[in-house]
Design goal:
The chain is of the alpha+beta class. Helix content is 37%, strand content 24%. It binds ligand MV4.
Length: 498
């Protein structure tokens, strides 16, 4: 297979930059595509060339296969990297790229399609000795047959849509009395959301931990794993904190799960970067949930502990090279934690708080990495995911990585909009997180908006409001008036403390 000379990155934001940086280091030219909202975006400035592909809504730009192929054609790109999100797990896109004579830097269209169906994925990996949650392996339509199975598995059970994934189309059923109604709802939801009403039933694991394995396959049938990431700290299926390695895996458990992950990849003849998602129950039994056939948002924590550049590996594999190391050569070095910094307001139900980055100063120093796509003065577009940055800290051990993260959060200066930085600091300081004794219900169990402002601070805020009112009231407060008019004193003061 020929070496790649020019890569078009069919994405935006931090991941487009992330991919282009590795491409440039390999001496490969880069092409950006951009929507109307991203004219001045950093990925556009970084690329060697950039092609405008349409209006801001992604359905009219970043999701348009024909526009992206036309951009590749007009610039002479010979490969396309899809990043994550957008078209990254669209088998029609992967196929169209290859049909156009270009290399898709990702898995085969067949593998994407197979893993896109949760039932087909389960059926495929089951033959390769991968543990599954007890449940049905076929779509189920007959309510009475389903009830019988649910009784055998034991309540609570979970009804899942085969076309779902990432938490979409799931329903917990606590007892037989509510089964009928819940199943009908699940089928009707799946039909309207995915155009496919197939559902299946699993035992509901009530306090799972989410542990995923990074795997890589090449086009010669070799598969390795690059250890795990723990992603149990999430909110409504949106990951908030990720780390590698997991604090609860023993070397034996890691070896068993790693082997299962490799088998799952082999079950679909996988090549490229992929992630095998497992859940662990309270006895540390692990079960395959699904496979993500893309580079994940949280891949940097794996890069930090393995020293590998996952994007370079993806490119080499797409070019037909063999994986350049053996499983035994891989070692974990230290501990890495990542937080996602969103333009969202944790005090207001995490509503997106898009606006302009009036101040934007990144933390710096030993072991700190910031993957972002913005600079001071830029606006976060309303049309896309409101993630501002990923902050990754790497240290010799978990406690060191957590302390470094707290230091980095304190050093991060963002004004002009609300962010999840204070919320992430709350997680870092929480005893359950620090001790490693947590599960996927961490946020619902421990987080209330009030925790972001301690009692002490609330008193100080009241004092500050009083002081401001008094100043404003005495007729001799020009400066205070100007300050309060531009930016509310209290909210800024609070921001600096969080
Ligand atoms: C489960 C489960 C409990 N039992 N399946 C959510 C995302 C999708 N990948 C599957 N998910 C779950 N499947 C069984 N049989 C709990 C979840 C789940 C979850 C999984 C991983 C990370 C966070 C989660 C949050 C809620 C529910």
């Amino acid at each position: 297979m020929p070496a790649i000379k020019k890569i078009l990155v069919a994405n935006r934001g931090e991941i487009a930059l992330r991919v282009m940086r590795s491409a440039r280091e390999l001496g490969i030219k880069t092409v950006a595509v951009y929507s109307e909202a991203d004219r001045n975006a950093l990925h556009v400035r970084f690329a060697d060339e950039a092609v405008y592909i349409g209006p801001p809504p992604s359905a009219e730009s970043y999701l348009r296969i024909e526009k992206i192929l036309a951009a590749a054609h007009s610039t002479g790109a010979d490969a396309i990297h899809p990043g994550y999100g957008f078209l990254s797990e669209n088998e029609d896109f992967a196929q169209a790229v290859e049909d156009a004579g270009l290399l898709f830097i990702g898995p085969s269209a067949k593998a994407i399609e197979l893993m896109g169906s949760k039932l087909a994925a389960k059926a495929a990996v089951a033959k390769f000795n991968v543990p599954l949650v007890p449940g049905t392996s076929e779509p189920i339509t007959d309510v009475n047959a389903a009830k019988k199975i649910a009784a055998e598995i034991g309540y609570p059970v979970l009804i899942k849509a085969s076309a779902g994934g990432g938490g979409k189309g799931m329903r917990v059923v606590e007892d037989e009395a509510s089964f009928h109604e819940q199943m009908e709802r699940a089928i009707s939801e799946a039909t309207s959301a995915f155009g496919d009403g197939s559902v299946f039933i699993e035992k509901y694991i009530t306090k799972p931990r989410h542990i995923e394995f990074q795997i890589f396959g090449d086009k010669h049938g070799n598969v390795v794993h690059l250890f795990e990431r723990e992603c149990s700290i999430q909110r409504r299926h949106q990951k908030v904190v990720e780390e590698a390695p997991s604090s609860i895996l023993t070397p034996e458990k890691r070896k068993a799960m790693g082997e299962a992950a490799i088998n799952a990849a082999k079950a679909c003849g996988y090549y490229g970067a992929g992630t095998i998602e497992f859940i662990l129950d309270d006895k540390l039994n692990f079960y395959f949930l699904e496979m993500n056939t893309r580079l994940q948002v949280e891949h940097p924590v794996t890069e930090e502990i393995t020293g590998m550049d996952l994007v370079k590996l993806q490119i080499r594999i797409a070019e037909g090279e063999k994986i350049p190391f053996a499983q035994e050569d891989l070692k974990m070095n230290g501990h890495a934690v990542e937080i996602r910094v969103y333009a969202e307001d944790p005090a207001n139900n995490f509503l997106p708080d898009i606006g302009t980055l009036q101040t934007y100063k990144r933390p710096q120093g030993h072991g700190i990495r910031v993957d972002d796509g913005f600079e001071q003065g830029m606006s976060i577009p309303f049309y896309y995911d409101p993630m501002i940055a990923k902050l990754i800290c790497h240290a010799e051990d978990r406690a060191g990585a957590i302390e470094k993260m707290i230091r980095a959060i304190d050093e991060y200066e963002i004004t002009g909009l609300e962010t999840t930085l204070g919320f992430c600091k709350f997680v870092m300081q929480h005893e359950a997180f620090r001790s490693g004794n947590f599960d996927t219900r961490f946020v619902e169990n421990y987080f209330k908006p009030e925790v972001l402002v301690s009692a002490n601070e609330q008193e100080e805020i009241i004092a500050s409001i009083l002081a401001t009112t008094l100043l404003n009231g005495n007729g001799n407060s020009k400066q205070a008036d100007e300050n309060t008019a531009k930016q509310p004193v209290v909210s800024n003061w609070k921001k600096n403390r969080l």
